[in-house]
Write a structure and sequence with these properties.
2 copies of one chain form a homodimer.
Chain A (H helix, E strand, L loop, with lengths): L4 H6 L12 H4 L2 H10 L6 H23 L4 H14 L8 H6 L1 H21 L2 H6 L1 H26 L5 H10 L5 H10 L6 H32 L6 H33 L7 H19 L4 H11 L6 H5 L5 H22 L9 H19 L12 H7 L4 H13 L1 E3 L5 E3 L3 H27 L10 H16 L1
Helix pairs in contact in A: 4-5, 4-17, 5-17, 7-11, 7-15, 7-17, 9-10, 9-12, 9-18, 10-12, 10-20, 11-12, 11-21, 12-13, 12-19, 13-14, 13-15, 14-15, 18-21, 19-21, 20-21
Chain lengths: 475, 475
C-alpha cells in the first residue's frame, strides 16, 4: 500500500517492480515476520526503494541548483519539498518516506557525519583563537531574537501570559548549524575566520539554548505546580554541558594520540575510518546524554582529531581520513537535507490566519541574528556573512516549539492550555522553513560581497574573495 | 536503563557519560518526543553508542583473527558472540543492541553493499560462462541436503508427519552467501572460477529455495485447510524470479549505459557513487518485492554495472566506483557480521536434549553441500573449495524455520501444532551457527590446498595458488 509511489516514479526502469510481495512470504503472517526479524531480516524493503529515490532526487536537485549557481543543498531541500508535495495530491508512500524511523535515523547519521567532516577540516587552536568573538556572537544572537520574539508575542497574542511570551522568544534563539556548515563547505570556505566564528558560536548557542529551555520550561512547570523554579537543576545542566566541552578537549589532548598510536598498529582494512567514526559516534552519544545536540559532539570529535594522530597510517600509504570519510558523507549527508525538505509541511502556508504572526516571527528571527555581526571583535572579518550564517533555525526551533506544545499553563479562566497552541506552532514551522531556505543563497551572496569599507589587513582576504568568485564563474 | 552497558564498557574514556538524559528534555514527555521526531530528531542516541561499540569490537576481533591467519569475518562474528554473551551474565543494553531496528537495518544495508561490491568485482559474461556448473552445483546442493534432512527428521522425530519432515529438509537447502563472499574477498579470490561458480550457484539456490518454500508451505496450508496445493501460485513465483533475473540482465544491457552516460554529465560531488548505490538499492528492493533476498538484487546490480559505463567519470579524474564504495562498505559490512554474532543464541547449546538432532542436522547440512563438488562440470576447478563455500546457511535457514514455526498441522490427536516446534527451531539455530562459524577457516584451508591430482590445464592455477599462499605467509 505504502509502496505505491515508488513504482509510479520508477515505472520506466523496471515493469516487474510493481508486483506485490511474494504471497508465500506475506502469508507467513505475524509470527513469521517476527521470526524473520529476529533472524536479521529486520530491513523493510521500503527503506531500499526510499533511499534510492532520495539519492536520485538529491543529485538531480543539487545539480539543477549548482547550474543556477546556487548551493547544492538548496536543491536537495527543494527536491525533498517537491517529493513531499506529492502527498498533497494523494500520492501514497510519501508519508511513510517522511516518517520512516530507519530513513530518519540515516538522515540524522548523515548530519552527524557532516559536522564530523566539518570538525576535521577545522582545528581546535584556530577555533579557540576566535573564542571571544564566537562567545559574543552567540550571546548577541540569543539575546536579540529572544526579546524580539517576546515583543511580537506580546503584540500578536495579548491574551497569552508572560511565560508564554518568553517561550515564544526562546524558540527564536537557537541556531541550526547544519545548513550553514554545508553551504560553507560547498563553497570551500570552511578555513575562513567567518566560518570558525559561526561554528564556534553555534556550539555555544546550543549550550545557551539548552539553558534557556531549562529555565523557561522549569519556570512554567513550577508555576503550573504552584512552586518555584529550582535553580540547582539549571546549574546542573550548565555544568554538564561545560563539562562535556572541556572533557572533549581533554580527551582530544590526552587520550586520542595514544588511542590512534595503538590503532595504527592494526593491519586490517578500514581500521582508521572505522575507529574515527566510532569516536565520532561516541562523542555524539555523550553529547546527547548531557542534553546537547548529537552534532555538537560530532563536531567536537572532528575538532580534536588531527592529521598528526594518523602518522602511522599515512606512512603505510593509506588514504587520508578526510578522503576516506568523503564517500560516506556523500551518500548520507544528502539524505538529511532531502528528508528536511520532505518534512516541510507546505499546508502551513495555506493557513491565512497564521501568516501575519509567521511573517513577524520570521523577520524577527532574521533581523535578530543580524545583531551578531555587531558582536564580532576581530578585525577584517566579513561581519555580514557571520550574521547571515546564524539565520537558520532548522529542527532546533521545532523541538523548542514541540516542548512548548507539551507544557500547559492555566489561562484567564483557570483552564490548562498548552503554552504553544496549534496556531503558534504553525507559525513557528513557517519561520523554520523560511529561515532554512533563505540561508544558502543569502550566505553565498554575503560571502561574495566585499565589505564596503575594507579595514586594514583585510585587503588580502578581499583579493582572495575576488579570485574565488572569478574561479567559480569560470567553472 | 538499556544504556547501562555502554558506559560500563567505556567508562575509562569519559566519566561524564553516565549522566542521564538531561531532565529538561526527558520531561518534555510524549508529545514533545513526537514533536521532536517529526522535526527530524528520530535518532535514538543508543544507536550512536551501539554503532561505536560495534565498530570497535569488529576491528579488535578482526585484527586478532587476522593475526592468527584466519579471515577477519570470523573475528567479527566471534566478537559479536562475546558481546552477546554479556547478556547471559546480566549486562543490560545487549538485548537492545541485538534487536534495535535501526542497527538491524544498517547491518542489512551492510550485507547489501557487500554483495554489490562483490558483484562489481565480478562480470556478467564470466558468470554466464560458468552457468552450467553453477546450475548443477545449486541443484545438487539443494537436492542432497533436502533428502538428508528429511531422513534425519524421520529418524529423530517419528511422530511428525511427512510434511513436517519435508519442511525440515527444506530448511537445509538454502545457501547464505554473505560469509563465503566475504571470505573470498578477504583472500583476494573473487576473480577465480571457484568464486564465480559459488556466487552463481548461490543466486540460483535462492530461487530454488523460494520455490521449495512456496511448494512446501503451500502444501501445508492447503492440507490444513483440507484443500490441494495450487500449482499456479508456485508457477507465478518461479516466473517472477526468472523475470527478475532476466530483467536485471536486460536493464544492464539496454538501460544502464544510457543512464550513466546521462549522469556522467552531472558535475556535482559524489554523483557516481550515489547513483550507483541508488541503482543497487533499487534492484535489491525489486528482488525483495518478487520474494528473493535483497542481496540477490544487489549482486545483480553490481554484476551489470561495468567500468565501461563510467568513462565520463574516469576521464574527469574521478576515483573508481570500487574505490569510492570501499569506505562505505568498510563501515557497514562489519556491522552485519557483528550483529550476526550478537544474535547467536548461545543458550541453545545448553539444551542437551537438542544436541543429538542439532548435530545430525549440522552434519547433514555440511555433507549435503559437499555433493556440490561432484556437480562441477568445468575442469581445473578446486571442487573442494566449491563444496566448502556452499556450507553456510546463515539467516536463510532461520527464516525458513521461522515460517515453519508459524504454520500449523493437526497432530495425531487432531490438535493443530506448529510444523517446526521450539525444539526443532533450537536445533536449526545450532546448525546455522555451526555452519556459519565453520566456513571461514574451512574455505581458507580448502582454497590453499592444492587438488590431489592436478588435471591438465590446471598447472597455472595451482602455481598461482602456491604463490599466493607464499605471499600471504610473508605478510
Amino acid at each position: 500500500m505504502t509502496k505505491a509511489l515508488l513504482p509510479t516514479l520508477a515505472a520506466g526502469l523496471a515493469g516487474a517492480c510493481a508486483l506485490p510481495l511474494a504471497p508465500v512470504l506475506a502469508a507467513g503472517g505475524g509470527e513469521a515476520a517476527q521470526g524473520g526479524e529476529a533472524a536479521g531480516h529486520g530491513l523493510d524493503p521500503f527503506v531500499l526503494a526510499g533511499l534510492a529515490l532520495i539519492f536520485v532526487v538529491a543529485k538531480v536537485g543539487g545539480e539543477l541548483f549548482e547550474r543556477m549557481n546556487q548551493p547544492a543543498v538548496l536543491g536537495e531541500l527543494i527536491a525533498g519539498m517537491c517529493v513531499g508535495a506529492l502527498a498533497l495530491v494523494g500520492v501514497e508512500g510519501v508519508e511513510t518516506l517522511r516518517t520512516h524511523a530507519v530513513i530518519g535515523a540515516l538522515a540524522e547519521i548523515g548530519v552527524i557525519i557532516l559536522l564530523f567532516e566539518v570538525g576535521l577540516e577545522s582545528n581546535l587552536a584556530e577555533m579557540l583563537e576566535v573564542g571571544w568573538s564566537a562567545l559574543l556572537v552567540a550571546t548577541a544572537g540569543v539575546v536579540a531574537p529572544f526579546f524580539l520574539g517576546w515583543g511580537i508575542s506580546a503584540y500578536f497574542l495579548p491574551e497569552e501570559g508572560t511565560l508564554g511570551h518568553v517561550f515564544i522568544g526562546a524558540t527564536l534563539c537557537a541556531t541550526s548549524v547544519g545548513i550553514t556548515a554545508r553551504v560553507l563547505r560547498d563553497l570551500g570556505r570552511l578555513q575562513t575566520r567567518e566560518s570558525r566564528i559561526i561554528l564556534g558560536a553555534a556550539v555555544i548557542d546550543d549550550v545557551l539554548g539548552l539553558l534557556i529551555l531549562a529555565v523557561v520550561a522549569g519556570a512554567i512547570r513550577a508555576s503550573a505546580a504552584g512552586g518555584a523554579l529550582a535553580l540547582s537543576d539549571v546549574g546542573l545542566i550548565a555544568l554538564k554541558s561545560v563539562a562535556f566541552l572541556v572533557g572533549a578537549v581533554l580527551v582530544g589532548h590526552f587520550v586520542v594520540p595514544h588511542l590512534f598510536r595503538g590503532v595504527g598498529r592494526f593491519r586490517s582494512r578500514g581500521v582508521l575510518l572505522t575507529v574515527s567514526l566510532a569516536f565520532c559516534f561516541f562523542l555524539a552519544w555523550v553529547a546527547a546524554e548531557v542534553g546537547l545536540a548529537p552534532i555538537v559532539g560530532a563536531f567536537a570529535a572532528g575538532l580534536v582529531l588531527d592529521e598528526a594522530h594518523f602518522e602511522n597510517f599515512n606512512r603505510r600509504g593509506e588514504r587520508d581520513l578526510e578522503d576516506l570519510i568523503a564517500p560516506v558523507g556523500a551518500v548520507l549527508v544528502p539524505v538529511f537535507f532531502v528528508q528536511m525538505g520532505l518534512r516541510v509541511d507546505l499546508s502551513a502556508f495555506a493557513r491565512w490566519e497564521l501568516l501575519g504572526l509567521a511573517a513577524a516571527l520570521t523577520v524577527a528571527a532574521i533581523i535578530g541574528k543580524q545583531v551578531c555581526s555587531l558582536a564580532v571583535v576581530e578585525r577584517g572579518v566579513n561581519r555580514l556573512a557571520v550574521g547571515l550564517g546564524m539565520i537558520p533555525r532548522g529542527e532546533v526551533g521545532l523541538i523548542f516549539a514541540g516542548i512548548g506544545a507539551s507544557l500547559t499553563l492555566p489561562n484567564a479562566q483557570g483552564v490548562a492550555e498548552p503554552v504553544i497552541g496549534p496556531a503558534v506552532f504553525g507559525a513557528v514551522v513557517i519561520m523554520v522553513i523560511v529561515t532554512t531556505l533563505v540561508t544558502p543563497p543569502a550566505l553565498k551572496w554575503g560571502l561574495q560581497r566585499t565589505t564596503p569599507t575594507p579595514e586594514p589587513g583585510q585587503d588580502e582576504a578581499v583579493a582572495e574573495l575576488g579570485e574565488d568568485a572569478a574561479r567559480r564563474t569560470e567553472l
